[in-house]
Write a structure and sequence with these properties.
The complex is a heterodimer of chains A (92) and B (621). Chain A is of the alpha+beta class. Chain A is built from two helices and five strands; from the N terminus they run E-H-E-H-E-E-E. In chain A, 38% of the residues are buried. The model of chain A has no long low-confidence stretch (mean pLDDT 93). In chain B, strand 1 and strand 2 form a beta hairpin. Classes of the chains: A alpha+beta (92), B alpha+beta (621).
């Protein structure tokens, strides 16, 4: 299935693109999607994605379709979802 | 006792007298500093029911417990008074060399009352206080007046807080500027203007000592390392303007006076575009090792040369919320707001309300003295800022009073889209799909404030379903408020909040190492509810009623029209339920009043008789 990964802020700077289309197997989890993303954009490993586990770095989060934050990276993704890698700022 | 001096300077501008109030460690550790200490000083020195613009309103400054020490991200100060915008407690924070200089001059805080017979500069030179005729600097902008006065004194070490023309003309959301940082919200600059106080200048030459220098240095180095690490990388990368795209993607970016939540030009006004096309430098507050403030400069076009540090809130307010879709005019508008000395957040929301009134035909070109303020018109926005700052014409005079008063005067249904709570204009998050945060804004003691509520984190991070109101939110929101309140009292920047292993244990230890005052984690934890209740008590004393804890009609009656949050709206009965659950979590009555026993429990015995009511009666079911 195909997913769109959107990069904001730090992750956009590292990926050097605002978004990318990635393909993963049917039934793949969000973690699988992040692993595929890391493979394509290795600069994300470290500042954005943890090596090996592909957990998001502290303070970063993933949102699906602009609606729900992903609480469990091992939950299954669905075809066509837009996965937004973002962080939450405060103040200003 | 270290770091603290144990001295509060009282100044009466009417008769040019001063006195010193001594405060001990027991008092200081109850309120810590910043917002807590400033609020306590306001409570004690402002008579109930006073005119916020009258001489009796006490304009109170309070230092951070860590200010002037090596502790990073703690050199800030709080300011509070009775707000001329809301009539409630008006507390605000800022951080600059001025924060440090108050302490170096030997003061933990200042209480300024009275009204000077002529425009005055209050000059505090360590223990010496003098009153200087401010005539040469009246009419100058905020940074211009600070530079001119420093030049006049011939001493770069004189640090200054100044108001601009907006404060001089009593615009109700005027700021106090210090080194380009602002005491921004609720109109403390207006209170300063009402006292004919153009500037407060301080020169301090005394050291700020700490109780355990070796331990404090170790804590300092550890914190600097952490603040240079991945936990704060996000702040150093784009600063708060990163929120533009974040909020847009979630469908919560206020657009065209909060009528929409997705802005078609979000990319063009984003933190990413600011960094790539306009950024000239990143600036840190004094003693800060993060440096989040992103400075942008316009290199060409009609706004060439405009240059300012941009944060998300004024960026949204004068950008998407006014329908302005490029950064050059936004940079110029924020710079203009800062120099005129007005809160860019409130200013933007007021301008956007005026634009909507014009587009709906509620107000005409004639009402605006020939201006046609439509969404997206940066020339009109610039003109409105100037009209408000100088109260030019009927509309300038009206808008200078804030969107609550302006809409009440204009009527014709414009109150429904006057985006405020308690008179304080809303921050940059559309609450129709952030429904825990909606309640946080409604019950805020200083009005609608993201920094005091912090509960947007619960919604955005998915701790709760942001599209719903469900039981249990009251306590969650209260816990966020209490935590934010402790940070505001210490003062520590909120960007540091995830930099500790265990916040209360670590910070209580550091506080003791700095001040020599024993403070347990539990005692530190209690400061949040104590100060929050103190602020609420002040509001009750000044006439707060339950109806004030509410939001504008737009968030109930107009579902989000498009984008990821399409269809979202708040249900009145659910918000009321959520608010009452919050009151219960706070231990208040169903009407939001504070029981006497709660005030005593929090160490506020001295106001319990004045404010406290009987304990709420438990109701079954």
């Amino acid at each position: 299935m195909n997913l769109i990964v959107e990069f904001l802020g730090l992750s956009r700077g590292l990926a050097q693109t605002p978004e990318a289309s990635i393909s993963v197997a049917e039934g793949a989890s969000y973690r699988d999607a992040l692993a595929a993303t890391a493979e394509r954009f290795p600069a994300l490993i470290g500042p954005v994605l943890q090596p090996r586990t592909y957990d998001l770095a502290p303070a970063l989060m993933m949102n699906v379709n602009g609606r729900y934050a992903v609480r469990d990276l091992d939950a299954p993704a669905a075809d066509g979802q837009r996965l937004i890698i973002m962080f939450l700022e405060a103040g200003g | 006792m270290h770091s603290y001096s144990g001295k509060i300077l009282h100044v009466d501008l009417s008769d040019r007298t001063t006195r010193v109030q001594r405060v001990g460690p027991g008092f200081l550790k109850k309120y810590l500093g910043g917002v807590g200490l400033a609020t306590r000083l306001v409570y004690d020195n402002t008579p109930a029911g006073c005119d916020p613009l009258g001489p009796d309103n006490a304009l109170c400054f309070a230092c951070s417990a860590f200010g002037g020490t090596t502790m990073p991200v703690g050199t800030k100060h709080g300011v509070a008074s009775k707000s001329p915008l809301t009539g409630m407690i008006g507390d605000s924070l800022s951080g600059s060399h001025f924060s440090e200089m108050i302490k170096r001059a030997g003061w933990d805080g200042m209480v300024i009352k009275g009204q000077a017979p002529n425009w005055t500069v209050l000059f505090i030179d360590d223990d010496e206080v003098s009153f200087i005729d401010a005539a040469p600097w009246v009419g100058m902008g905020t940074s211009e007046s600070q530079e001119a006065f420093r030049e006049h004194m011939g001493d770069e070490n004189v640090r200054i807080s100044a108001i601009g023309p907006a404060g001089e003309h009593l615009l109700r959301f005027a700021t106090i500027d210090n080194d380009g940082r602002q005491v921004g919200r609720t109109g403390n600059g207006t209170v300063m203007g009402s006292k004919r106080l153009k500037m407060i200048a301080i020169r301090g030459t005394q050291p700020v000592t700490v109780a355990h220098p070796k331990a404090v240095m170790e804590e300092t180095l550890k914190l600097i390392k952490v603040t240079q690490g991945p936990g704060t990388l996000k702040y150093r990368t784009l600063g708060t303007p990163a929120n533009v795209l974040n909020m847009n993607k979630l469908g919560v970016l206020p657009t065209r006076n909060f009528s929409e939540t997705v802005f078609e030009h979000a990319e063009a006004i984003s933190g990413e575009t600011l960094r790539d096309k306009f950024k000239v430098k990143a600036v840190a507050c004094v003693g800060c090792s993060i440096a989040c403030e992103q400075w942008g400069e316009v290199q060409e076009g009609k706004y060439k040369g405009a240059r300012i540090g941009l944060d998300y809130e004024p960026l949204f307010a004068l950008g998407s919320n006014c329908g302005i879709g490029t950064l050059p005019p936004i940079i110029a508008l924020v710079q203009q707001a800062d120099e005129l000395g007005m809160d860019g957040m409130s200013a933007g929301v007021v301008v956007s309300w005026a634009m909507e009134c014009f587009e709906r035909g509620i107000l005409s070109k004639e009402d605006f003295d020939g201006i046609e303020p439509r969404f997206g018109d940066d020339d009109a926005a610039m003109a409105l800022l100037e009209m408000m700052a100088y109260r030019k014409g009927r509309m300038g005079d009206l808008l200078a009073d804030g969107v609550k008063r302006a809409s009440a005067e204009i009527g014709k249904g414009s109150e429904a889209f006057a985006m405020h709570s308690k008179g304080l204009e809303l921050p940059g998050y559309d609450v129709r799909s952030l429904q825990t945060f909606a309640m946080g804004l409604a019950v805020g003691t200083r009005g609608a404030c993201h920094n005091r509520a912090l509960s947007y984190e619960l919604d955005i991070k998915g701790v709760v379903d942001r599209f719903k109101i469900e039981p249990g939110r009251g306590k969650l929101a209260m816990d966020k408020e209490n935590f934010a309140c402790v940070l505001d009292c210490l003062v520590l920047c909120k960007f540091l909040r995830n930099c500790f292993d265990d916040f209360y244990i670590d910070v209580a230890r550091i506080y003791t190492e700095v001040t020599g005052i024993e403070l347990t984690p539990d005692e530190l934890r209690q400061v949040g509810p104590r100060v929050w209740n103190l602020k609420k008590a002040f509001n009750i004393r000044e006439g707060w009623t339950k109806e004030m804890d509410w939001l504008p009609d737009r968030v109930f009656d107009e579902p989000v029209p498009e984008g990821p949050s399409k269809g979202s709206a708040i249900k009145r009965e659910e918000l009321l339920m959520e608010i009452e659950e919050y009151y219960e979590a706070r231990g208040w009555t169903r009407e939001g009043l504070i029981p006497k026993s709660k005030l005593i429990e929090l160490g506020l015995e001295d106001i319990a008789d004045q404010i406290g009511v009987a304990d709420p009666v438990a109701v079954e079911g």
